[in-house]
Amino acid sequence: MTLNRIGPEAARLARRPVLQAAVDSGARCGGRIDSVLFNRNDGLPLAIWAAQQASAQQVCARCPVRPACEELALRDGAGDRASDDLVRGGRTGKELAVDREIRQPGRLAAATAADWQHLVELNAAARARFTLAYTMDAGPVTKQGLRRDAVERIGAMAMRAADRGEVWDIAVYNAAGADITDEFAFAREDFGDLPVAA
Q: pTM for this structure?
């Protein structure tokens, strides 16, 4: 799946950040769903809205990320069965409401819950701090309070130094002190024959 094209099944399985990135990068409307074309203004005659709505649906029909836009609208609760005042992902507000409330309520509830869980996990991962330790000829080195990206970057440098025989005993510890070295990409590379600490 690329960010400039997404299919219906991929959209249903994707988490919110992926859907939003797809819409932001590839929507024919430029992500401007708040524009007059996609929303009925108060007092707009029904005949004019019908023509405007048809134009909006034509724009959506040719959009490579239409399924992502539709899925976001469903998860956001866009649309209402009592009024027809918007178009999202090529669907009218009434169509979206019927899908959300009658046809797919269980799937959408699960997707929304999974989106929230994903955000919670992303926030926890962003806050997580680690300790990277290794040994050099000059003695042990311990770097505390590192974010995951810093551990990957410094760990990769330590691995290159280990390949030259300058570093050994590379390990990463979580906040509880458990060795979680194997959870990092730099550690899953071929260690080769690392020197054993004396």
A: 0.66
CA atoms of 151 and 122, how far apart (whole Å): 17
Distances in whole angstroms, Cα of residue 13 to Cα of each of 3, 48, 84, 172: 14, 36, 27, 33
DSSP category for residue 36: G
98 burial via Cβ count (<10 Å: 0-12, 13-18, 19+): middle
Looking up tokens 């399985």 gives 13
Q: Which residues contact 128 (CB under 8 A, 6 or more apart)?
A: 147, 148, 174, 175
Structure tokens at 192: 């080769």
Q: Which H helix or E strand runs over 173?
A: strand 167-173
- 36 CB burial (10 A radius; 0-12, 13-18, 19+): exposed
Tens of pLDDT along the chain (198 residues) come to 444 688 999 999 999 999 999 999 999 888 777 778 899 988 899 999 999 999 999 999 999 999 999 999 999 999 999 988 999 999 999 999 999 999 999 999 999 999 999 999 888 878 899 999 999 999 999 999 999 999 999 999 999 999 999 999 999 999 889 999 999 999 876 544 444 444
Integer angstrom CA distances of residue 100 from 13, 64, 116, 142, 186: 16, 22, 18, 52, 44
